Amino acid sequence: MRLHKTISVAARALALAGAVLIPTLSSGAATADNYPSERLNWTIAFGPGGGNDIMSRTIISILEKYKLYPGEIVAQNRSGGSGAVGWGYLFNQKGNPYHISSTSGSFITTPLKAKTPWTPTSFVPVALLAADDLVLVVNKTSKIKDFDQFIKEAKATPLAIGGMGAVNVDFIVPTLLAEKAGFKFDYVSFNKQGELTTALLSSALDAMVANPGDVAGLLESGDLRALGFSGTKTPDSLKGVPTFGEKGFELGISMPRGVVLPPDAPKEAQEWWIATMKKVVEKPEWAEYVKKHELTETVLWGDEFGKFLGTSQDEFARILKASGAIK
Questions:
Q1: Could you tell me the end-to-end alpha-carbon distance of the chain, in angstroms, rounded to an integer?
Q2: How many domains does the chain have?
Q3: Position 282 in a domain
Q4: Whether 220 and 271 share a structural domain
């Protein structure tokens, strides 16, 4: 496989910036009797308007609307270094149960490429609430009409498959599929979704992987054709499109949209948040968010989420090292 890098990796200095921030320690200790009793500081590791920001603010809105958190909630965007600054800040709030953050795919990939002082398993896991999975699509003019034909063509001649980022789940997913199905491909990475889509529409690419929400309009118009879905269950908008697993190629890889506490946060705080997030996912606003953003409803609690993060980290590292994307 040949990896074509067209994006720049975030500067190490920026990625490590979170490691030198001074923690703001909570004045109270968390016990079963008094937690929570202080203001909650919610760190959003990316800028306003992105997927991580929207998820965080959706959860906060639900917490506030249904009075599930008794105190004030302050959300702050701490972007930089593909999430390293924000999660680095949370890492430095060790033991403080009044700091919290949400996760995304970069929660796994950023420490692999930037060598941060933290890894996904450094934090106290609360919950995996949903997952971003990818749809494999081709141009409407492609001779490839379905998933089986895609595999056949890919085995005959390496195809050019596009995705977002060189060290990202967009690269991981086709790489795992290629491993399991027995074909080779050329991966072409892009910085912007619009540029990636344009490359496919102009036939500069044979196929691409994308979040369903990013290509929904083009699938509906017929300009793109969906071949397969990497998640465990195909969303309603892709009705009739098989999952990779249904075709015999279960990947077990997703971008985790979850919630974590700082390292060494008290068990009482973890248990309180698990119970509270169970209430959050039952609200209609959460179901609307999952449907609107074409997410896969995937729920794991506490240590099970921690195991998922560890397994995903190991698999990502294996693939990226084998491809030469990281050392």
A1: 16
A2: 2
A3: yes
A4: no
